[in-house]
Amino acid sequence: MPHTALESRAPEPQAAVRAALFLVLVGMCAALHIWKVPPALPQLQAEFRLSLVESGFLLSAVQFGGLLLGLPIALAAERIGLRRCVLTGLAVLAAASMLGAWLDSSLLVLLFRAAEGCGVLMVAMPIPALIRRLVPPERLSRIMGLWGSYMPLGTVIILLAGSWILSMGTWQLLWSLLSVLTLCCLLLTARLVPPDPATDPGQPRDSLGQLARTTLGSANVWLVALIFGVYAGQWMAVIGFLPTIYAAQGISGTTAGLLTAIVAGANAIGNLSAGRLLHRGVAGWQLLITGLATMILCAYAAFGAGLPAPAQFVAVLVFSMVGGLVPATLFVLGLTLAPTPQTASTTIGWMQQCSSLGQFAGPPFVAWVVNRAGGDWQWTWTATAAFAAAGIVLAALIGLRTRSAAPTR
Fold first, then answer.
1. Which of 88, 187, 278, 399 is the most exposed place for a label (fewest CB within 10 A)?
2. pLDDT at residue number 3
3. Which part of the chain is the Major facilitator superfamily (MFS) profile domain (predicted)?
4. pLDDT band at 311 (very low <50, low <70, confident <90, very high)
5. What is the total count of domains within the chain?
6. Whole-angstrom distance, CA of residue 370 vs CA of residue 380
7. Residue 5 counted as domain residue
8. Tell me, what's the pLDDT at 4?
9. Phi, psi dihedrals of residue 215, rounded to the nearest 5°
């Protein structure tokens, strides 16, 4: 919805930038909830006697919210306000994590994981549009580069800190601590982030149906969202299966977890670099093709070339690091290519929905390819390369459609 700025006063520029930077930390807090299950999975399997399939559903349940509700929640956020949506999402996360910690039913834990997925979406989806509202245009690409790293940074934190907490206590303790942390983020968000702008009651607003039609009627929105889906699918598959691949190579669980955390964290370097490169005028579609093409080459080097273990690790590290150019670039493109200013959050919502689809479908597709190859992980790269190749074609189409436009800054 258009922001008509009927607030009593706008926030000071430095305060607004600090609020935008704090929102990156809020996104990292939400990411902790997504990745808290992997380090706790052995305890959960033992307590609830989960099969491998049930464990897989527990891992993926957090994606159900984004898979089904990305665009609907974005439409709701346009009505209730972006800040209110973030606050509501943090409240849902805090409540679901605390309730999930003290239930003795695997089904209820699974249901609250799905609720956490909705909470994560309500937090992460509005933040890019909120950041655009808070910061001047000349600083947008840099801060969006930082925002693009919220997921890998959150992944590293929970893989390392979560394992440490679990070494001293139970998974219920980890769930409870994250609930308290999320509640603190909620209170700080309410204090640091300025309220949603008031709107003029007499000014006409697009209906929710019109916002959805405008968003989904844009070819650019579809291109950006589909690239996000194919990127997320391959990144999630590689990061998710790395501990299994390392175990097959005889690498211990602790070492495998540390190596996986390092690879996930390297993705933040690419995100930050994308923000700087976009600020300097590099075209977004060029960064997308560079990131995706590098992922193809590195996936082949890591899995298909028969390299020694140290070289494989370097290849996976570069896969994640240079691949990090993609999400930050997509967030900036999502904001700049949204068909209207009013559809910025719905564009991001559709991107998140396609990302969730990719994260949900990517690992099973890779596993299917490996099974067809007789359990040989050597063919992992063919599955991830298929995703990346599709993304390169879509990025080239973005280049054709936007080449005459000014570079994103």
1. 187
2. 44
3. 19-403
4. very high
5. 1
6. 6
7. no
8. 41
9. -65, -55
Place 11 in a pLDDT band, splitting at 50, 70 and 90.
low
Tell me, yes or no, whether 210 lies in a domain: yes
**What residue has token string 């922001």?**
3
More confident residue, 300 or 344: 300
Average pLDDT, stretch 339-365?
Answer: 87
CATH number of residue 166's parent domain: 1.20.1250.20
Which structural domain range is residue 328 located in?
Answer: 13-402
Place of tokens 């298909």: 304
In whole angstroms, give the CA distance from residue 225 to residue 127.
17
363/316: higher pLDDT? 316
Lowest mean pLDDT among 113-127, 167-181, 234-248, 349-363: 234-248
Q: Is the pLDDT of residue 47 over 60?
A: yes
2 within some domain:
no
